[in-house]
Amino acid sequence: MKTGHKKVLLIIPSKILARGMEAVLSELGEFRVEGILSDLSHASEARLRNVDADVIVIDPIVFDYVSRMSARSRISEYSDAAVVAVKTVPMEDEQMKQYDGIINMYDDPVSVVKKLRESVIAHEEAPDTDDYDLSAREKEILVCVAKGMLNKEIADFYNISIHTVITHRKNITRKTGIKTVAGLTVYALLNNLIDSSSLEL
Amino acid sequence: MTTEIQRIVFSESMKLADLIDVNYKLLNVLSRMGISLGFGEHTISEVCSRQGINLNSFLLICNIYTYEGYLPSADLMTGADSVTIVDYLHNSHSFYLGKEFPALERNLKDMVEPCCDTQKKIVARFFSDYRAQVENHFAYEEDVVFPYVRALKEGRMQEGYSIEQFEENHSNIDETLGDLKNIVMKYLPESCDTVLRNEVLYRIYRLEEDLAKHTIIEDSVLIPMVNKME
Question: Which pTM value belongs to this model?
Fold first, then answer.
């Protein structure tokens, strides 16, 4: 584990809450707030990608109701940090499960730090890499996607679960920044992962 | 709470030239509204009344273009005119299809000049697919939504359609443009000229921003307005 302060990024619309969190963490040491975003706008996404945070503390209210279920995976498109939710309004348990930890408004400062620490450890144990190059398996999956294969077909072809295919696809998008199938096809062609003769041009 | 936002938004007594000085990207808005340059020292309200443009609609659009997170005030919304908004959106479509896309296509073509044939083809194909996607999306608005709003304004209520069905899905279009940006920035061969590449990127960033504002005007001005008329 790295020594020194762990870096925290806050994504919290309430200025009072954000400032309070910053003050509490700075008093106790161990964690330090490196940045505060009030939303997940376009500009924020770029910052999210570039703040090398160990843990992100987010108020899920920044997501609208529909996208709240996929909030965690949306963050992981931009950052490898552990993600802890701070609950400011009542939310469904189901929506809270995706986070690495949950802070309540009335938690005392010591338990906030404890929760952050636990979430970082739990997250580090989960397999993940900082590597932005595609792995061999990811390249194989990318080629299938570029050729127009569906998730189910890819899963059957490699004898893996659909869930695993989806995880690979998410990682491919996180690493390349490319989201559409057409875009991934162009990426595969430009990087000579596929031959243009295998597609109609 | 009279927010700070409300104090700094544009007002009708402002000179048109000062408006542009605050946000030069409004030059696009002026041309789509049919206001040509050379307006001297005239104020917003003077120019609007001379050109027969609904003042509140003009202010709404300029505010949305300029202030992130701007929420239209009830006053402006009440005084705004749905047909002016529709005309604006229509002119924006013509601008994208008639001016912006051909220009972007030319820039892309110049940029990939040093690439091999296959690479040229795949970039051109990606862009033409994107363009077709956007054209398709615009066509629905032009053929269904806009005529509906105009008819409603003339007091002709139409059976079988309501603005609620105007459920938008821009996300795919936005993602495709985002992918083009990433490809140009990160994955084209180094033989492509940097200046030409920058030109394409500037264009994409501007277009991205412009389309985002376009969507906000549809979602937070046109739809609520028509909802009220229905």
Answer: 0.71
